Amino acid sequence: MALYGGVGAMALPSELIVHIFSFLSDRDKLRASAVCSRWRECLFYPALWTELKLRIGGGSSSSEETSRLEFLMRKFGAFVRELQLELAPAEVSPSSLNNEPPSTRVDLPPGPDNDPQPSERWRDAMATYLDQALCVFTNIRNNRNLQKLRLYGDTCALQQEGLLDNSNLHQIDQGHKKINEIQRLLREFLSHSRQLRWLSCSFMLGLVTPSSLACLSNPSSETLQHLSLLDHQFGPLISPSELDRLSALHSLALDFSDLTSELCGLLASPHRPPLHRLSLLLNGATLEFKSLEGTATEDDWKALVRVSANLRVYIMVVEVSSTDLLGVLKPSLPLERIHLDSYNTLVTDTTLELIAQQYNKTLTHFLLLRDDPDFPDLSVNRNEDPLVLLAWRCTQLAVLIIHGHRKSLPGCFGRRHDSFC
């Protein structure tokens, strides 16, 4: 490339070159750094690497990808400001070892003779994940200026029956040495942080433990605004005393079973800033060993809404019976979004009617997904389809997604529901 007057591109000031390179993706930056020493010097300017989005694990991770990750973290891990780490799903699901369809499969209780065994490719993918996660946390543990740490796991893999429990992880990581080290490095990072504003960890294979948040430094406890802790393999990941320290929190995501009456009471304290967003996961697999007893009551929700008048709640429901769902949908809960996802569990017309009646002024997003091809006709022996009534009653509804329900929705839609999918 030549500039006006015959001056070469290499004559551009470094500041301008850095600005031009700021429009490149991380992968293209790394490729461009191999052009010449001048470009390499400019491309490794710290201001170009304040944000990193990484995918680790998966079934196709090559040694080249691992080397690139190690280089990036050694070079920029100490001063990156925003880090997103996502666990790429394994190419072969552990459940593929069992060829029977889920609807007919008989799950055996865990034991030495019937523990589900992960496939070799899945084991390799998880081993890669552990090595790469260890690399990442080794290089950010002393980063005092990281403001956003977002960790996303493979939720599909975690729903496989028992294949990510301690017994199978032990087969991949003998003695849990790597997992324990990753957990220790995370605690070290939290203790060193000084201005953390966003901490999100969802389904990262036991990365966060019930003792992790206790290590959060006092400065970060005063700056943290968003906290998301979701991992159905553990008990509560945050205690009331730890929540009480987070004086700037306005967005929170937890397992529904962990939102106890005591925790809700703390959030409703008039001395705290109002909570703006509350995201809750109601997972049928979790309910097998985590009871809904002691969770927020109707009075708790009323108290919380009095303090946080603009609070909006998002609930993700996975394989939960209508009985359990009806038990948690309190009238004062300011529900804005609900996502119902199941394979074996039916959503009844009673549930839909309750949602339509209680949340007709707040509900903006409704998602009903079912993988079973024999999705029931919810309007059997009725003159009205409850889905149509829900859409009619909820005056704020902006997004309606229905997958698997093959019935035509007349009246207020005038077209088949398929156009919403």
Q: Could you describe the 3D structure shown?
A:
It is a single chain. By secondary structure, this protein is of the alpha/beta class. It has helices at about 15-20, 25-30, 35-45, 65-75, 120-140, 155-160, 165-170, 175-190, 220, 240-245, 260-265, 285, 300-305, 320-330, 350-360, 385-395; strands at about 50-55, 80-90, 150, 200, 225-230, 250-255, 275-285, 310-320, 335-340, 365-370, 400-405, 410, 415. The strands form two sheets. The protein has an eleven-stranded parallel beta sheet. Strands 12-13 form a two-stranded antiparallel sheet. The chain is globular. It starts with 13 loop residues before the first helix and ends in a 5-residue tail after the last strand. The model is unreliable at about 1-5, about 90-115, about 155-165 and about 405-420 (pLDDT under 50).
Structural class: alpha/beta
Query: Helicity level, as a percent range?
Result: 25-40%
Number of helices: 16
Low-confidence stretches: 1-6, 92-116, 157-166, 406-421
Radius of gyration: 25 Å
Strand order of the largest sheet: 1-2-3-4-5-6-7-8-9-10-11
Shape: globular
Total number of strands: 13
Secondary-structure element pattern, one letter each: HHHEHEHEHHHEHEHEHEHHEHEHEHEEE
Q: Give the termini distance in whole angstroms.
A: 48 Å
